[in-house]
Amino acid sequence: MRLFRHQVKTEQRLFWRSREAAVFVFLFPILLFALLTAVYNGRIEGRPAALGLLAGMIGYGAANTAFSGLAITLVTRRELGILKRIRATPLPPAVYLTSVIVSIMIVYAIQVASLFALGHLLKSTPWPSNLLSLIPALALGAATFAALGLAITGFIRSVEGSSAVLNVIVLPMAFLTGAFGPTRHYPQVLRAIGAVLPLKYLLDLIKGIYLHGQQFWDKPLAVAMLVGWGLFGMAVALRTFRWEPREG
Amino acid sequence: MSAIAVRDLKKSYGTYQALRGISFDIKEGEVFGLLGPNGAGKTTTIEILEGYRTRDEGEVEVLGFDPERAGSAFRERIGVVLQQSQLWPNLTVAETHRLFAGYYEHPRDAEEVIALVGLAEKRDARVKTLSGGQKRRLDLGVALVGDPDLVFLDEPTTGFDPAARRAAWDMIRSLRSLGKTILLTTHYLDEAEQLADRLAVLREGIIIREGTPAELTGGASETEVRYRKDGNEVVMRTTEPTKLLQRLTAEALAEGHELEDLSVRRPTLEDVYLSLTVEQEE
């Protein structure tokens, strides 16, 4: 427990001190939200656009922070030899990885709070009322994307390529699942692809709870899909996660 | 008592045999050098002992642990300087030391370690602003902050300028005076000769020679005599240098000419090392 606290504190310091992480991981969804609400003034699904965009950006933030942000951090550390170096210390590997994931979830929590605050400030969006359902939903989403983030690191060979690879995954996923706007008018094929992606189910949960006053358990399919994707990520990560840089 | 005992250690990567059965012992408090050209198996050996790699065959005991299965209790007692590794560019020297100190039950005082590795003036500098030599000293400081009994140094001075190497050597000597056991790999002969109490020469996965630096050089006892005659260099090797020199100087005096550029040289570890590796190739 002492090691865990020590490492989470360290991870927080490392995150906020890195300008790239602070801008691209933390600030980017917030900036995107500000931009989109400025240009979309109409209504989405019968509600002010800002509400739908806020829910969308909270979902996109989970993927951007817990999936891309985590994966870039771990690939960078792996290739620099930092992960290998850590393995030579008494810090147990499981404590290390848990700390990294918990730390990125703290970042995400601050990001979500900032998004709600910005929405309230710019477009008078309401504060979320059902925190007892919203917090577990967001935690599940972030944990699912963190597991997938661990899994993807095994497939990313270099630090240079990591942002590109992750953007190619996250941006289309965000469009196909409706994080940036409704998908009703998308072609059938694209909607079918969107319908299997984890972000779709996180968005379902967020919209259900924040916009429709539902409870966490009112969307069992969404919860099951997120848990399934999370377990899939863990299973892949257990097989492919590496602590050492590529040889040569 | 042995800090490290290795018996008939074998390791292959696919069909490539990196280690073909090596054995050695390192006593507590000893500085042991693994010397050999690139690809000889030095890093494979040290990484098996550190617990990074599994072995195919043989027995390995490090501080009484089998490194393959050892956990935190083993890692409390070892310090590791990897051949290539970096640390967080945005932390300061002092923060990096404190971070690692936090991983151990009984760490040394971080400030003391920073002073020991000569980074006191840089304690508040970010890691990304350090020179290559300073970063290597940071690696060493981080390896020492847990107050290990055994320190692994994998090519600790590769890429250093001569002044930085001398400074690193002094530091490694000061570790020995603290009573640490040190396993050092290097492909620099002078480094092995300067630092190691005993060393093993590794080539293509086998130990071809083992002993103190003096024993290794003493084994090949030929002395080399060189001089220049009519513009051509003459090189002679002998086990009886007194007799040879007597004959050469008598002849030169009798003929009334000088032995130009005369030099008499004992074989260095380098000569031994080269002769050993050449023998192996034939």
Tell the overall outline of chain A: globular
Amount of beta strand of chain A: under 5%
Helix content of chain B: 25-40%
Q: How many H/I helices of chain B?
A: 10
Enumerate the spans of chain A where pLDDT stays under 50 for 5 or more consecutive residues. none
Number of domain modules of chain B: 2
| Count of structural domains of chain A | 1
Largest sheet: number of strands, sense, barrel closure of chain B: 6 strands, mixed
Low-confidence stretches of chain B: none
The class by helix and strand makeup of chain B works out as alpha/beta
The CATH topology of the largest domain in chain B is what? Rossmann fold
Cross-sheet strand order for the largest sheet of chain B: 5-6-7-3-8-9
Strand order of the largest sheet of chain A: 1-2
Structural class of chain A: mainly alpha
Tally of alpha and pi helices of chain A: 10
Rg of chain B over CA atoms, rounded to whole Å, is 23 Å
Overall CATH architecture of the largest domain in chain B: 3-Layer(aba) Sandwich
Report the count of strand segments of chain A. 2
CATH class of the largest domain in chain B: Alpha Beta
The SSE order of chain B reads EEEHEHEHHHEHEHEEHEEHEH
Structural features, described:
The complex is a heterodimer of chains A (248) and B (282). Chain A has 248 residues and is mainly alpha-helical. Chain A has one domain. Chain A has 10 helices and 2 strands. Chain A has a two-stranded antiparallel ribbon. In chain A, helix 1 packs across helix 5 and helix 3 (49-80) runs parallel beside helix 6. Chain B is globular and about 75 Å long. Helix content of chain B is 35%, strand content 29%. The longest helix of chain B is centred in the middle third of the chain and has 16 residues, at 162-177. In chain B, helix 3 packs across helix 4 (110-116). In chain B, strands 5-6-7-3-8-9 form a 6-stranded mixed beta sheet, with helices on both faces. Chain B has 2 domains: 2-218, P-loop containing nucleotide triphosphate hydrolases (Rossmann fold, 3-Layer(aba) Sandwich); 222-266. By secondary structure, chain B is an alpha/beta fold. In chain B, helix 6 links the parallel strand 6 (150-154) and strand 7 (181-186). The chains are: A mainly alpha (248), B alpha/beta (282). The interface between A and B is medium-sized, with 20 and 27 residues.
